[in-house]
Design brief:
This protein has 98 residues and is of the alpha+beta class. It is built from two helices and two strands; from the N terminus they run ααββ. The protein has a two-stranded antiparallel ribbon. Keywords: Monooxygenase, Oxidoreductase, Signal.
């Protein structure tokens, strides 16, 4: 083996070591496409608690106005899956005949 071939093998070896070092140094995280990192439903839904609620009137017809008053408490341990409450949409769901 002459010096030229030794030099080529040394350069190829250095390239291989550099490639291996860069592969190990890069932070490669696993794909989380199927909910591996999602929280349980009881944690995701724990956003705010309503209490001292009053609403009226007791019965309404379609498109009648109703009012709700009360207090709410934002959860101290806010779920990771839910954005911070800078703007909110209020939706009321109640049991009713279908």
């Amino acid at each position: 083996m002459n010096a030229k071939n030794l030099f080529k093998l040394g350069v190829v070896g250095l390239y291989g070591m550099a490639t291996l070092a860069m592969t190990l140094a890069l932070d490669i995280s696993p794909a989380a496409a199927h909910g591996e990192r999602s929280q349980e439903p009881f944690l995701r839904m724990r956003t705010n608690q309503w209490y001292d609620m009053k609403w009226g009137p007791e019965t309404t017809k379609v498109n009648d106005l109703a009012s709700m008053t009360g207090k709410f408490h934002l959860a101290e341990d806010w779920p990771r899956a839910v954005g911070k409450p800078t703007r909110a949409f209020f939706n009321v769901g109640s049991p009713s005949p279908v």
